[in-house]
Amino acid sequence: MTASSITAPFADIIARFAVWGDFVSAQPHGSGHINDTFKVTCNLAGQPVHFLLQRINHTIFKNSAALMENIRRVTEHLRGKLRAAGCTEPSRRALTVIPTHGGDACYCDAAGSWWRMYLFIEQAHTVDRVENERQVYEAARAFAQFQRLLADLPPPRLHDTIPNFHNAELRLAALRDAIQRDPCGRVAATRLEIEFVERRAAMCSRLLAQHTRGEIPERITHNDTKINNVMLDEQTQAAVCVIDLDTVMPGLALYDFGDMVRTATAAALEDEPDLGKVFMRPEMFAALARGYLAEADFLHDAERAELVFSSRLITLVIGIRFLTDHLLGDTYFKIHRSGHNLDRCRTQFKMVASMEAQAEVMERIVADCLKK
What we know:
The protein is an alpha+beta fold. It contains 13 helices and 11 strands. 41% of the residues are buried.
């Protein structure tokens, strides 16, 4: 796609937003797979000003207005808390939604596509795969600070952008339904994976039961805590800003922690077919625990007690989702080869087994972090 082919149709869309300066160009940006993202350049009195324009995937996020209401409330609260704490660059440390000229947080075009704009965060980047312990520490610290700063967000409750997103009991029920129906005739070849889940089925109710009893509170959580959802400073490599806020909604803090462990400590890619390369790296877990607990002073005792368990639970749940999709004919997750979702499922289950084998080490690491 050439610059001219991008610029022409987007000029009208960008004109709907209260941007500063004269529109120059829009170029595809980033490696995201959900929304279409573009870096927009405007000219403000001879100086370039950059914005981020996104077309929201309304197939996944069916209520764009509610989603953007969440994001605007969250980002405004974050910037306010940062300013109150003496931060000198709150617009770099938290996303800034650019409203439409009518004051809305997003715009629906004639084709029914929903668009939004943010200030572009300069001199920062993301990484798609963990390269070192410093990155893990910084990302974990950023996600914990994100949760901490949002702990006192005033009512009303945020919208559920994807209801029951991490509900382990419902994910298990969906798997069992897929097994019973077996629409693609794939159950017979996945007996080992199904048995792996059934031996651990009791895990799926553990955190939910504690939440129901009031021991683990509902919090505002990110729900997609991969390393590439934290921007890092190009010079210092320190965490700058948490991004990709589409799934910010009420949840359990432990879900965010567990998903960080699942993604940041893995020695191999999520779809690695050679399971001999798949294991949880304790040195990465130690860096992650240090970073998270340096900021997570808001946690209750019951939450601290389940940090290690949450890592196994979320990894199991993601594996269950991959297995379910495989049994249903790969209708949700995009695949690039035959058996792709089954490979993904197997890496998750291998990670669960690795975490189980290293559970005592992980518990000691958390205990040592909590003493400091």
